[in-house]
Amino acid sequence: MNPIVPDNLADPSVVMFDDTFYMYATIDIDHDLKEMGPPVVWKSTDFVNWNFEGTIIPQINWNEPHTYTDKEGKERTGYFRYWAPGKPLKKDGKYYIFPTIVKPDDSMGTYVMVSDEPGGPFDFATGSGLYFNEDPEDETQPLIPDIDGEPFVDDNGEVYIFWRRRKAAKLSHDLLSLDGEIINIPTEYGGYSEGPVMFKRDSLYYYIYTLSGHANYCNGYMISREGPLGPFETPKGESVFIYSNSESGVWGPGHGNVFRMPGTEDYYFLYLEYGEGGTTRQIFANKLNFNEDGTIKPVMPDFKGVGYLGEKDIEGTLISDLNVSASSYRSSKIVEASVVENPNNHDNIKAAREQAEKRARTFSYQPELVLDNSNYTRWYAREDGQNPMVTFDLKEAKMIDRCEMFFVLPAFGHSWILEKSMNGTDWVKCDRQENITVKSPHIGGDIGEARFLRLKITDGEPGLWEFKIYGK
Question: Whole-model pTM?
Fold first, then answer.
């Protein structure tokens, strides 16, 4: 189902190591692009049930404000930010990622980071790390002084990297520097482009590039019959293969990546969706299908997604017949945007935007949304609400094994108290998380028999994507 993860994420990359899927992404916190969440890696063995624990680059305080004086002499405040980590590579027993890191003054680059485990933690492969308002001689330097570095390994083991504005180059064997000239990849549509992807299927190389942005984000592609650096040609048919789908309600399928299920010929495209606008994006996935000549069939993005890609990894029986109430919830929000139906029907992307139709969708935050089995909806307490909590009525006493709590903004951590009751009046504490802990989901156990459950959020963002109760 889409979104595939209960969190606000963008710029996804998914890879499978051994029997586990790993998802790397930008962490949105609805602060535009000026401040992002601490980087984490989500894991799954079935592609439906995902979890993470802890941050993967703890040596940087991502949400510490830094003051500086800009070129005009004005005092500013900024943050370190982690964007678009690109698909990780395994080499000589080590795992490499290529994230964009932005400094508080907006200087940015693609860096090489390495770990002994695909889930991190990751360290800079060269230098002593990144600094601000300091100038050490051994500070880590970027591999590329730009954003959205995306690596690709060819069949012969040679590695290449692609980045914003249609740039590409070969990488050195140690992955630490460029090896050869930087090329510019020609594409059918011009204009600003980011989020590149390179993959190979049979004898064809596919270069994916983004167009437009926001609610009109979309992805086009070119093909090469010779190699990852071209020459490239425009494919037959629709070269913009994924774009907004007003019928399903998916807006702005943007910066994404291609995942091939190991041992199969099944390919999937993972991408960000517009969400509520700004940096409230989420990750969707749909299958990539191909014509006999190798061209990509248009993808109609939807909320159905791809479902399980592994054996279902969940224990116990989900209790679904219950009622829920909350201490408070936020008012609904109407989001409007001009949405292009099909950019392939226009001479250029600018013309498509100018003729786009205005559309609207409504986001609600009532407590019952934590029970709808959807990662797209959530309960959110009012901004001025006190002592946020949700209460569940199971309608009759039942034996409960555990609860799984998928909090909003989980990368910042939460603490909580879980209580139970037989009558809704007398409450007994059955579990708690005393210290703020960065993970998702949080799990409450040792519950036993109860008719009512009550979750009190003592610290962290007062909201839940989902709350799942499993019986014995």
Answer: 0.96
The rounded distance, in Å, linking the Cα atoms of 445 and 420 is 11
Q: Locate tokens 């986001």: which residue?
A: 363
3 state DSSP class of 257: strand
Please provide the distance, in angstroms rounded to a whole number, between the alpha carbons at the two ends of the chain.
26
Cβ contact 284:271 at 8 Å: yes
- pLDDT for 6 equals 98
Rg from Cα positions in the chain:
23
Q: Which helix (H) or strand (E) holds 157?
A: none
CA 97 to CA 113: how far, in whole Å? 5
Question: In the chain, how many H helices and how many E strands?
Answer: 1, 37
Residue 426 has pLDDT above 90, yes or no: yes
Nearest CA among 8, 1, 76 for reference residue 363: 8
Neighbours of 90 (CB within 10 A): 12
Residues present in the chain in total: 472
Q: How many CA atoms are closer than 13 Å to the CA of 254, on its beta-carbon side?
A: 27
Question: CA 324, CA 256: separation in Å to the nearest integer?
Answer: 36
Q: Could you read off the pLDDT of 282-328 as tens digits, one per residue?
A: 999 999 999 999 999 999 999 999 999 999 888 889 999 999 999 99
DSSP letter (8 states) at residue 173: T
Contact 240, 218 (CB under 8 A): yes
Helices (H), 264-359: 349-354
d(CA 452, CA 319): 13
Q: Rounded distance, CA 190 to CA 186, Å?
A: 9
Beta-carbon contacts of residue 383 (< 8 Å; ≥ 6 apart): 330
Tokens representing residue 428 in the block: 């007994």
